[in-house]
Amino acid sequence: ATPTALLVGSGRAAQLGVVIKGPEVLESTRTIDTVVLDKTGTVTEGRMSLDVERDLVVLGADSQARALALAGAVEASSEHPVAQAITTAARDRLGTLPAVRGFSNHEGRGVSGTVMLDGTEHRVAVGRPAWLVEQGVGVSQEASASVAAFQASGATAVVLSVDGEAAAVLAVRDTVRASSGQAVARLRALGVRPVLLTGDNARTAAYVAEQVGIATDDVMAEVLPADKRDVVARLQEQGHVVAMVGDGVNDAAALAQAGQQGLGMAMGSGTDVAIEAADITLVRADLGAVVDAITVSRDTLRVIK
Ligand code: ADP
Ligand code: MG
């Protein structure tokens, strides 16, 4: 391809809201056969919310208000979308939240810390149910049943543990971007296979996949942040040219890996870390831009050959 043609192609892409790091990126875009889509913040809007009346189930002796205060207190130190949903709901209900000591963020799993409430200190953790079970927290049949029911309805369910006991199940909900389904259909029409990749649980992932038309076999769920990169590497080893689309800090390594043979694409609404790791930034918060990038690149390079 001549430099001029590539420049023209980059210009066309830019008009469509696809910002390319260098014109040579168009070469890799042309041969993409697999697009790995992060779920939260990429296929979905990534703005989660918690409806306390419907989606907070208290398990132990704590009241709804106490459960919310304890969960909100530890989540206030995290920037994860799940944390923001819980903190916002807790502040709306309760105003200020108790202070937290010894906060830890457990990447892809949850958060923990010590919270002082009504004069007593409590060890509190909020996170994915399997992580709390691993820590020896007893999760009853009743709790597991409400987790499963929430997940089947597309929500992300987390468990609150207080002093080693499961105290509540909280389910947060996100919205699939209106444009995601059509973008997936357009990818298929170009002969590109869409794959959904997420740290979230398999049931929630399956619900989102179904909404946008991604096959069950192409859903990879419960993948820890450190393993997202390996998923991309494995597809590459199988001979695929992969574009990875993501927005989060936890997508950066996978975006960089995809860029070695194919492409990393970051949502413009995403984190700086993701944008730096990617070859392309999608200015519109719309997966249609992924399809536009591939189409422009194929057109540009077809013309010049
Ligand atoms: P994704 O791939 O969807 O961006 P992550 O890898 O960041 O997801 O997180 C995976 C799962 O870990 C979340 O769905 C949630 O269950 C749990 N988790 C992560 N961070 C938190 C948090 N701050 N509070 C509660 N749960 C969390
Ligand atoms: Mg994300």
From TrEMBL:
Belongs to the cation transport ATPase (P-type) (TC 3.A.3) family. Type IB subfamily. It is found in: Cell membrane. This is Cation-transporting P-type ATPase B. The chain holds residues 481 to 785 of 839 of the full protein. Signal peptide: none annotated. It comes from the Bacteria. It comes from Actinomyces respiraculi.
